[in-house]
Amino acid sequence: MDSEKQEFTITAYTENHVGLLHRLTIIFTRRKVNIESLTTSESEIEGIHRFTIAVTETEDHVRKIVKQIEKQVEVLKADCYKKKEVVQQELALYKIPTETLTNGLEVERIVREHNARFLTIERNFVVIEKSGYRRETKALFDELKPYGIREFVRSGRIAVSRHEHGPGKDAPTEDLN
Amino acid sequence: METVVAPKKKTSGTRPVSRRMTGAQAVVEILLEEGIEMLFGYPGGAIMPVYDELYHAKGQLHHVLTRHEQGAIHAAQGYARVSGKVGVCIATSGPGATNLITGIADAQIDSTPLVCITGQVASPLLGSDAFQETDVIGISMPVTKWNYQVTRAEEIPSALAKAFYIAKSGRPGPVVIDITKDAQFAEFEYNYHPYERIRSYTPVPQTDPSSLDKAAELINNAKRPYLLFGQGVILAQAEEELKTFVEKTGIPAAWTILGLSAMDTDHPLNVGMLGMHGNYGPNLLTNECDVLIAVGMRFDDRVTGNLNSYAKQAKVIHLEIDPAEIDKNVKADVAVLGDAKTSLQELIKRVKPASHEQWLARFRECDKLENEKVIQEELHPSSDTISMGEVIRLINEKTGGDAVIVTDVGQHQMVACRYAKFVQSKSNITSGGLGTMGFGLPAGLGAALGAPDRTVIAVVGDGGLQMTIQELATVYQTGAKLKVLLLNNEFLGMVRQWQQLFFDRRYSYTEMINPDFQLLAQGFRIPTGLVEHRDELEKAVEEFISTDGAYFLEVRVGKENNVFPMVPSGSGVSEIRLE
After folding, report:
1. Is the pLDDT of residue B488 over 50?
2. What ipTM does the predicted assembly reach?
3. Residues 194-223 in B contacting A (C-alpha not used; CB under 8 Å)
4. Which one of B21, B365, B489, B536 is at 20 to 30 Å from B197 when CA atoms are compared?
5. Whole-model pTM?
6. Where does CATH 3.30.70.1150 sit in chain A?
């Protein structure tokens, strides 16, 4: 069971300091673990940053990595979650030619059915925005593909835990520095 | 070069709260405030402003000019390990800084508190491939506990205060502070406050009392309990507590090479050395104990051998300061987080007095076997060739075990660790985790300077010695009373041993046609001795130990002697071979 690779979301509450990203990513590279996505943002606690890192690895490996992350001087707290323990989303942007809209109603239907929306409509291109699970943004990609996707980008995974309180509740944050 | 205004001679006594000074002055001021008496380094362009301040601080702060930055950092390590203080090391940018990296990695894996200060090109030049610019922060990040680049003089006090606090607190480790040259020159209002805590950092985790209760229950009900101790005991200054604990419980205790000297080697409950070349009983009986108590050690692969057959029958109690070590290599049934001193103090209250005579007798039986098969011949060889072990035996006889033994890496290291006697803690200094050849001589230099009243012996092989032999010049210049014992077998002995045992005697590039070490050492102005025959050995060791000052003794030992016992790589501890 522990030796099966599965999807994990690692969160780390940290100081917002230069170089910390490198310090955390080398924990993965040293063990030859691929980071599938990584996002950093502010957290619910003022002045505290949050890393959200997506990996597919064995549980044993991930737990050891989380301890190494938490060991870093500038990390307040680190945790890991299985797929079912988080609510997660990704954001995708699709750029397609404007003429695909003028040549029929198909694209509009697809966008509606996928609960996506037009972010902007320019003379030569339109940008469609879709948030959701990987499979949902992928499904929209597949449907839009025949119309010619000029550019596509998907954000890293962001996720919040399914616990009542966030993992940051245990982070010691009183400012003594 | 830009000029710095020569500062006034530092006056002792009360210092004003805030004073205007340069970044370079601040660096020296902080070293003094932190109680640093000695640092090791090598000057160069990007660190010159700090060196100029060191010139002015000569009376208060002793700088040791090594002959290579690697020498400086290993010396700082030796100094830190023998004294328990933070070792300080200083170098210039670029090659100066990169030459420190091996020692930083060594200090990281062996948890040695170091603060390394490196010069950096001026901040406007960062990223421009300027002369002697290198990304020291990037390069050192994987091997430091923390590092930081200072680009403004104002940051120096807080960066260095944090550096000292982080280096020495919790599980110690190396810290690098990279200071751009313009920050060294710039003037600012100086104000220094040592750190007492950092909100994102928990140096010593809280101990859960229930884990102590569980541990005590396991120990009190154990039939064959067995304790392993590592450097955590020394770092926490828990030597007395360890002794009290094993004496109260009657539990046999074995050491990792980093834990060696935390407990008298002749203590009746000290059963010996763990690991690949450790003692027979301590390895074999790991797989017979029912409760295994690990104190301040990290189950290194050289200690455990194959984990799939390591102590599977035992309940494991792990006393550890670093939560990341729990379950890393060996799963703990009970993890007691905290520093070894407090955890042992609490455990001592909870455990019942006991004795385990039958169980101890198992260790004695194993000792007897190891004695017959290995130790007797190593310490009192029947052949004409001198063994490494008999040299160490003579050193024990002459010093009574009250010497600091610093070793390099290889066969001589294993022999010294196996046979050297110790009656005082912090007396065995070796490169354990990283296995850094070239460590011995400079670390010995640092140890000799850090413990000037003790006999300090650097035991080195002919391979490792030649990696940092230039530091004999530093030994001479500093007047360090370092005794260098070269056990010369004209081979990279440990590699040769593996080639013999596992590569069908194909001695691929391990034989050394060596220089005349006598002439070399004499060239460095150090008195020397040479022993080629057994009948000269005792007298030479006598002179080696009794000489008041540096001395270089070379002993020609058996070219193809092997270190036994041995747990072959990939084997379990119970597959330990006596021959």
Report:
1. yes
2. 0.92
3. 197-202
4. B21
5. 0.94
6. 87-154
